[in-house]
Amino acid sequence: MENNTHMSKVLGPMHIWALGVGIVIVGEFMGWNFAIAKGGSLGAIAACWIIGIMYLCLVMVNTEMGCVIPEAGGQYAMAKYFLGPLAAFNIGLMLVFEYVMLEAADALVVGEILKTLSPDVQALPYVILSLLVLTYINYRGVYATLTLNFVITAIAFVTIFILLFSTRFYSETESLLKIKEMTIGLPYGWMGIIGALQFGVWFYLGIEGTALAAEECRSTSRALPIGAIVGTITLLVGATTTWLVCSGLVEAGVLGSSVYPLFDAARAVGNPIVINALFAGTILSCMASANGCITDSSRAWYAMSRDTLIPEIFGVLHPKYKTPYRAILFLLPIAIAFGYTGMLDQVITFSIMSAILVYIMSAIMMFKFRRMYPMGTIQREYVSPFHPIPSIILMGLSILTLVGMYFGYWINILSGLVFYFLASLWFKKRREHYIDFKSFIGNADVWPRAEGY
């Protein structure tokens, strides 16, 4: 390898929270509301809480394995030890596309909301400039990147509660919320809830990316569980609040197709201060999300290259900043290109599908991990409670979400599966024989022999 230095261990729980919540906070501002079109208003809030349970299980599963495997790459790093090269390659690729597509969705929303300022506004230069600035910050170092993410994520999150209190929800006589008049209940029954699960994911998509920064934590066993679990609880509170204010201020037919539902809710309040706050919150949430996506996608791409699953040119750290700078720069134009397809729901769907496939594989890895290393055989800094129940719930709800995606997006599912199948063929035929297994297995030789191996 050209560079054998290690990534800087500078991150604490605050930064892990900022990475996870920062990526996901944009899901409060856009995307989730498509669940209303598929399942009605009650279907959307039901999906919000059902998927919230799924993500709590995912965080528990990922955190136990992530604390044992403190390497860049998150679920990819887990897969290389528990499932082998082909599965690791696919999971790494899925992670990259999950975050690149999410970054593209952020660019789409920024462009659309800037157009509300004036029909003459050309959004493209501003979006490219924003992504270039965020890429430069990522290039210079992860500590500054995630410190910035903490600040802008916190500001964006606060704007949701500015909107909430502006509705005077606490007053029976003065409240602006009109839940009964604006909502449409559950028009498609229980099937609507299943259909809505797909976009319920958008409230939380990306929180699992906290594991991708495990190698850069000062204390992985402390930073990863605290940051990830507190982040998931933060998102549950924010998601419920978002559904409440949007469903009480915007008619369901409009809300189900809005590009920026919280901003539309702010305009329904009519207070200029609230409108400006939500305008800023939407922009900041997109920037926080894009910032975190650059961090996570580049770590996955870097880890795959360092382990020789893809060309090693990307597996190099900057000699001064200790960042995977080549991976960061390589993925930027890909995100911009997808962002300007203009198809927000299609981009979101591919990101969600890639993520759901990773979640299913994560549940499988947890079963195998516990079988290979039963309790007491290796040190665990965090233990997922009630095993195997979280893994069973995670797999069941992930599969159910894919079933829900079939209603309206079966072509996307088929196209995505074909893409990953063709990528697997390329890997088996063209790349697998180039793998340097000494690099690939990393520090596996310091583990005790697994049960049955």
From TrEMBL:
Segments crossing the lipid bilayer: 16-36, 42-61, 81-102, 122-139, 146-165, 185-205, 226-250, 270-294, 327-344, 350-370, 382-403, 409-427
UniProt keyword annotations, A-Z: Membrane, Transmembrane, Transmembrane helix
Q: Where in the cell is it found?
A: Membrane
| Signal peptide residue numbers | none
Question: Would you tell me the protein name for this molecule?
Answer: Amino acid/polyamine/organocation transporter, APC superfamily
Q: Where is the Amino acid permease/ SLC12A domain?
A: 22-409
Q: Which Pfam families match?
A: AA_permease (PF00324)
Instruction: Classify the main location.
Output: membrane
* Recorded superkingdom: Bacteria
In which organism is this protein found? Dethiosulfatibacter aminovorans DSM 17477
GO cellular component assignments: membrane
Membrane topology recorded in Swiss-Prot or TrEMBL: Multi-pass membrane protein
InterPro entries reported in the protein's UniProt record:
AA-permease/SLC12A_dom, APC_superfamily
The Gene Ontology biological process annotation of the record reads: transmembrane transport
